[in-house]
Q: What sequence folds into this?
């Protein structure tokens, strides 16, 4: 999956309130956190972890494979560039409201360096039973009981709800990939779908999309070629045109990014689009028996 | 944040792209005065939307009297959702050829995209559909910016001949406008080559990217004011994401995806949502201002509270709502659906302190809220 079993994780912004709280949750769950970054507290220890001045220092000292960013919007570009220059292979960027031109800057750098970025504006990724990176309730067995269903979601709250519905229907979750609610993101629905398609631990897939952009349409085209059973839900059928619906990326402009277009694309690919997210578990049960 | 033409053009001028002499007028008399100074002119409605010409919002005027008459006709007219309050009075230009030029954030290439077409003055979507050979694109690596050589290569298939050099220079400047101002879109349609071979921007549309706007305190003051309702204004002050809708089932939920979905479910089960109100993310402790906001909507007949906690804790959100409810004591049927992080505590809190029973199934809560609004 995106974060592998033995991947070591660096927490940028470890010493902040959210960084501290979620680093503790991640470690409790089994995520291997090797340290944190805070230039003003370099050389100290925080919740039993070494604090480095830069990601590059952390790489030299112990090494790591994944960086997770608990960093405010205007600091995100520098933090991401630090991690990329350190040679990180995966970045999970949780921050909302990063200037889009900053996002494009570090995505271009990451792409060139062969680094996969999840987000920005995501709740993170979970490989159930192994680790999670971000702020997802991976440790709650009613929501993320380990199993064989992979879930891709632009939204944390709705993605969580869908996971819970799968578990209620007797399924378990293999992986949750929160791709984020921004208009320009590092890992698209399609890229996440390809990773779940290749993932041996995943037998079925749920895609949780929303209005805006064309990511669902692109993913649907690929879905048509897949053998793993799949259902989809797309949020925003009742949303007015021309308004950003909470997520910067969730906006219909003219006839672009509409619910109708996404639903039609999934249906053309043979993927059932649910009227209510509550139906996810039962719909999947009806397909796989 | 969208900019009207009169606020966008100074950005072009500052980067060295020529724009016609112009001034802003808020009355017909002012328009006539400006016309007396600059000669034959165009009187243009200033609203943050396209299709002004088709709506009758752009008129030629040869004399100050004609400019006065044009401004009289245009000021006060409605274009889309906007009422015209001011016009730009601009010197007429000897139009030789009309081009289209733009730089925008492109989702597919995850970077800036320069677009150029020899079919200026038209809707670019139509050009893309009908004359794809006359539209060229150049994805840009934002780390390097763009070079004249790259732009020349983009333009080459169009055979612009002697106009190529000046066009290429204008596009390089346009990219500079985009890059220096955290643009989401900067578009010139039409970009004109005059009879004497000069390049002039006849129109300009600029969108300042919302998250980048924090870096441009002065510039963002010049954006067209967003059309907000009184409640939307109140929400913005309180730091809440709220959108007024025209239904009667109030919605209070967490997270953009779940809040949109709650609206969808209300409509699916035969009701109409009264609003979008999200209290997730950074706003998950703002229960009280959120409740005050939905309560202030006179159309609301029932309220649906739908939480699913991932990052946001439902017990923290529920505590805010329960406290606010006991404080405000609204005379309104309310229906709760609470799931995810902290749900056991949150459900117990609603039960114990409000004497209400949250629904086990989200869809049942939605159906009950819809029924109560009938």
A:
């Amino acid at each position: 999956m995106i974060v592998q079993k033995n991947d070591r994780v660096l927490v940028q912004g470890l010493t902040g309130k959210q960084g501290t709280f979620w680093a503790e949750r991640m470690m409790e769950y089994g995520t291997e956190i090797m340290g944190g970054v805070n230039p003003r507290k370099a050389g100290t220890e925080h919740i039993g972890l070494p604090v480095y001045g830069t990601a590059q220092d952390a790489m030299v000292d112990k090494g790591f494979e994944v960086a997770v960013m608990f960093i405010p919007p205007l600091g995100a570009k520098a933090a991401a560039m630090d991690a990329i220059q350190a040679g990180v292979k995966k970045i999970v960027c949780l921050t909302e409201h990063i200037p889009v031109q900053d996002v494009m800057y570090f995505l271009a750098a990451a792409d060139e360096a062969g680094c996969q970025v999840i987000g920005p504006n995501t709740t993170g990724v979970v490989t159930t039973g192994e680790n999670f990176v971000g702020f997802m309730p991976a440790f709650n067995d009613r929501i993320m009981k380990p199993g064989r269903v992979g879930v891709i979601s632009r939204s944390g709250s709705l993605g969580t709800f869908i996971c819970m519905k799968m578990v209620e229907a007797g399924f378990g979750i293999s992986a949750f990939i929160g791709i984020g609610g921004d208009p320009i993101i590092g890992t698209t629905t399609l890229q996440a779908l390809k990773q779940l398609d290749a993932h041996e631990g995943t037998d079925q897939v749920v895609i949780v999309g929303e209005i805006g952009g064309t990511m669902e349409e692109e993913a649907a085209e690929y879905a048509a070629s897949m053998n793993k059973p799949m259902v989809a839900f797309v949020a925003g059928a009742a949303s007015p045109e021309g308004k950003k619906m909470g997520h910067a990326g969730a906006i219909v402009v003219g006839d672009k990014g509409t619910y109708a277009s996404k639903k039609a694309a999934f249906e053309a690919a043979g993927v059932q689009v649910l009227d209510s997210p509550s139906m996810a578990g039962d719909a999947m049960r009806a397909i796989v028996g | 944040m969208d900019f009207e033409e009169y606020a966008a053009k100074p950005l072009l001028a500052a980067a060295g792209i020529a724009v016609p002499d112009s001034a802003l007028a808020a009355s017909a008399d002012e328009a006539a005065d400006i016309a007396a100074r600059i000669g034959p002119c165009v009187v243009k409605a200033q609203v943050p939307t396209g299709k002004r010409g088709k709506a009758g919002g752009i008129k030629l005027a040869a004399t100050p009297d004609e400019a006065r008459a044009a401004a009289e006709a245009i000021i006060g007219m409605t274009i889309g959702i906007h009422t015209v309050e001011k016009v730009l009075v601009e010197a007429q230009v000897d139009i030789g050829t009309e081009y289209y030029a733009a730089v925008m954030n492109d989702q597919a290439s995850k970077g800036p995209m320069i677009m150029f077409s020899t079919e200026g003055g038209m809707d670019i979507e139509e050009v893309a559909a009908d004359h794809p050979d006359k539209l060229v694109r150049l994805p840009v690596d934002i780390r390097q910016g763009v070079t004249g050589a790259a732009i020349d290569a983009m333009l080459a298939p169009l055979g612009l001949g002697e106009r190529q050099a000046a066009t290429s220079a204008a596009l390089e400047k346009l990219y500079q406008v985009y890059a220096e101002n955290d643009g989401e879109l900067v578009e010139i349609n039409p970009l004109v080559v005059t009879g004497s071979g000069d390049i002039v921007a006849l129109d300009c549309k600029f969108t300042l990217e919302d998250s980048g706007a924090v870096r441009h305190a002065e510039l963002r003051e010049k954006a067209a004011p967003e059309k907000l309702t009184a409640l939307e204004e109140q929400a913005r002050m309180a730091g809440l994401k709220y959108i007024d809708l025209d239904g009667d089932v109030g919605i209070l939920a967490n997270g953009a995806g779940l809040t949109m979905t709650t609206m969808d479910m209300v409509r699916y089960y035969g009701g109409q949502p009264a609003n979008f109100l999200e209290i997730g993310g950074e706003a998950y402790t703002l229960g009280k201002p959120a409740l005050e906001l939905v309560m202030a909507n006179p159309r609301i007949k029932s309220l649906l509270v739908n939480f699913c906690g991932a990052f946001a804790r439902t017990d923290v959100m529920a505590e805010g709502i329960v406290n606010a409810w006991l404080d405000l004591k609204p005379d309104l049927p309310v229906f709760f659906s609470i799931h995810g992080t902290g749900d056991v505590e949150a459900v117990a809190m609603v039960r114990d302190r409000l004497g209400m029973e949250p629904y086990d199934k989200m869809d049942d809560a939605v159906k009950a809220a819809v029924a109560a609004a009938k």
